[in-house]
Write a structure and sequence with these properties.
The protein is an alpha+beta fold and about 600 residues long. It is about 15% helix and about 35% strand. It folds into 2 domains: about 240 residues, Dipeptidylpeptidase IV, N-terminal domain (Methanol Dehydrogenase, Chain A), CATH 2.140.10; about 260 residues, Alpha/Beta hydrolase fold, catalytic domain (Rossmann fold, 3-Layer(aba) Sandwich), CATH 3.40.50.1820. An 8-stranded mixed beta sheet has the order 29-30-32-31-33-34-35-36, sandwiched between helices. The chain has a 4-stranded antiparallel beta sheet with strand order 1-2-3-4, with no helix packed on it.
Length: about 600
């Protein structure tokens, strides 16, 4: 095995914080932090900048949903599942006494907390307890549960208006499955009205209410790239912000309704911009390449952001939008790692097989030498409507330290580059995106000194589908592959899905009956006999998104056609009984899984 400069266990054990959330009185920040070895809840007093761990094992090891503050500014409302099964239950945790209260336990359904009413009496949440994902509310003690929406397609959101007259949510009542509109439910009467539909087929996503309730802010892709929007509840008119060149999303409005804080997604970096609501003038703030995400705003002046860059894990920054200055509240903890050994990323564009320009992020080893030949990895992302960003990547740091060249392609079907690009692979999984993965491999050969005989492919979820599809449909190109929680057969996947996930599959690949032949044609399980290179499958037994049968069926097919398992065989299979759809926020699991993946590629490439 290649000797590394960075201690891999130390790298994989780097602590991270997640979901920094401002209390309603703007005096405290709560956040998850795993510096003890597992995720715990911490609370920072913003006056003194001191933080305290307030939990001891009550919160989830693997994050699948967030948390919110109760209106008492003492308790945290959150959800937790069991071993990754995503059947989330709702809890309340008192940050002063550490008392944990069960609010809504529903072991066979999935819940997500959304909002609390300003009077502190109600909680809104999403649940699929009656089939499709819909919006519910209950009292803050867990009593008086009410279902508010009953739509055939998923309803998401559920934010109370400041006066508790309305609740906003998103759903789709059109035949075009790309469509998403914003609705208002009048809480007293139950009347529902579609508030914002710019055109059929566009996605309008609710952002939030202004503090006085006179406006809502939202995001729309009506012109291709996302634009921010403001809807006037009195005049019933809307206004859009941004010219549509890059994706812009609305995240917060100042108390006087004069400024709209947004996030711009540009060349796989995300950072805040500010619009003047009256003039539409945009102030472009100067942020480094990476992700500067958030939207918590204190005193209409201080913006709390999680700043993550390719060469640095996340830091928590308080950014003064008036003085344009930053104050670091939580610095990244890199332990005893020599940060000069961390490799930087580059955002590039390459040509696919049909000439389409495809964005990607690439990494080279330290002391890269074009006279040498390097093993290479193509890393398809999940989704398929996901996106790679210019962030600190454990995969990139591990494998460049081992001497690999890497490309993280944002192939057609990815978000971040406009609606047409995002929708390019609808009813075409394994089509244009497959061409883009093949071209990414060629980019490594032509531009990054990759050895054509030592290029592997690795991905999780839809990226796992990509691995199986590529290894069965362009088998001569890949020297090895890892499929993590993959999809192997679309109809089998669909049949085991929750209703809101079924909706997403139909949105992507059509109808299970009308498009039955297409689903069979684009399922890697039907081409398992084509595999020529070593394959590692990894799956969590409790995965509800891509059930473990997606891997076990593929293993069964390989064995049936005479392929041999084991470290010297044609394929290897690792099944984890304590994990669902991945679990990289659990440090112990992260070490287990990465160790297995590193070992596989070091032996096979």
């Amino acid at each position: 095995m290649t000797k590394t400069n960075i201690n891999l266990k130390t790298l994989l054990s780097l602590p991270n914080f997640y979901i920094a959330t401002l209390s309603h009185d703007e005096k405290k920040l709560a956040y998850y932090y795993d510096k003890t070895g597992r995720i715990e809840l911490y609370v920072m007093d913003l006056a003194t900048r001191t933080s305290k761990q307030v939990s001891n094992g009550e919160f989830p090891k693997v994050l699948r949903s967030g948390f919110i503050w109760d209106r008492d500014n003492i308790s945290i409302l959150f959800t937790k599942d069991k071993d990754g099964n995503e059947q989330n239950d709702i809890y309340k945790f008192n940050t002063e006494t550490s008392e944990l209260t069960e609010l809504h336990i529903s072991p066979t359904s999935q819940e997500y907390i959304v909002d609390t009413s300003e009077n502190g009496e109600w909680i809104s949440f999403m649940s699929n307890k009656n089939g499709q994902m819909n919006v519910f509310m209950m009292r803050t003690d867990g009593s008086d549960v009410k279902q508010l929406t009953a739509t055939d397609n998923p309803s998401t959101g559920g934010t109370f208006s400041p006066d508790m007259k309305y609740l906003s949510f998103n759903t789709n009542e059109e035949g075009d499955m790309r469509n998403s509109d914003i609705y208002l439910l009048e809480l007293e009467t139950g009347n529902v009205e579609r508030l914002v539909q710019i055109k059929v087929g566009s996605k309008e996503s609710f952002g939030g209410w202004s503090k006085d309730g006179n406006y809502i802010y939202f995001t729309t892709d009506v012109k291709g790239n996302n634009q921010a929007g403001v809807y006037n509840m009195n005049s019933r008119e809307y206004r859009l912000y941004g010219d549509g060149t890059f994706n812009i999303s609305a995240v917060k409005m100042t108390t006087d309704n004069s400024k709209l804080i947004c996030m711009i997604n540009k060349d796989a970096s995300v950072y805040p911009v500010i619009f003047d609501v009256e003039t539409s003038e945009m102030e472009d703030l100067d942020f480094p390449a990476g992700i500067s995400a958030g939207g918590q705003l204190m005193e209409d002046r201080y913006l709390f952001l999680t700043v993550n860059m390719p060469t640095s894990p996340s830091s928590l920054v308080m950014f003064d939008i008036i003085e344009k200055s930053s104050d670091i509240l939580l610095a990244p903890d890199t332990g005893d790692i020599d940060i000069t050994l961390i490799t930087d990323a580059e955002h590039i564009w390459y040509k696919s097989l049909d000439g389409t320009a495809i964005p990607a992020i690439v990494y080279k080893p330290r002391d890269f030498d074009t006279s040498k030949k390097y093993p290479g990895l193509v890393l398809p992302h999940g989704g398929p409507t996901g996106q790679y960003f210019m962030t600190f990547s454990l995969s990139a740091q591990i494998f460049t330290d081992l001497g690999y060249v890497l490309i993280f392609p944002n192939v057609r079907g990815s978000t971040g580059y406009g609606a047409e690009f995002r929708d390019a692979c609808i009813k075409d999984w394994g089509g244009k995106d497959h061409e883009d993965w093949i071209a990414a491999r060629q980019y490594l050969i032509d531009n990054m000194a990759a050895d054509p005989d030592r290029i592997g492919i690795i991905g999780g979820s839809y990226g796992g589908y990509a691995t199986l599809w590529a290894m069965t449909n362009s088998p001569d190109l890949w020297a090895a592959g890892i499929a993590n929680v993959p999809i192997s057969h679309i109809k089998n996947l669909y049949d085991k899905q929750m209703d809101h996930f079924k909706y997403y599959v139909r949105q992507q690949m059509g109808d299970p009956e009308n498009d039955k032949e297409l689903w069979e044609e684009r399922s890697p399980l039907n081409y398992a006999e084509n595999i020529k290179a070593p394959l590692l499958l990894i799956h969590g037994e409790n995965d509800p998104r891509c059930p473990v049968t997606e891997s076990t069926n593929f293993v069964d097919k390989l064995e049936k056609i005479g392929k041999k398992s084991g470290k010297d065989g044609d394929f290897e299979f690792i099944k984890y009984d304590d994990i669902g759809h991945g679990g990289h926020t659990d440090i112990n699991f992260r070490i287990r899984e990465f160790t297995a993946m590193i070992d596989f590629f070091q032996r096979r490439l």
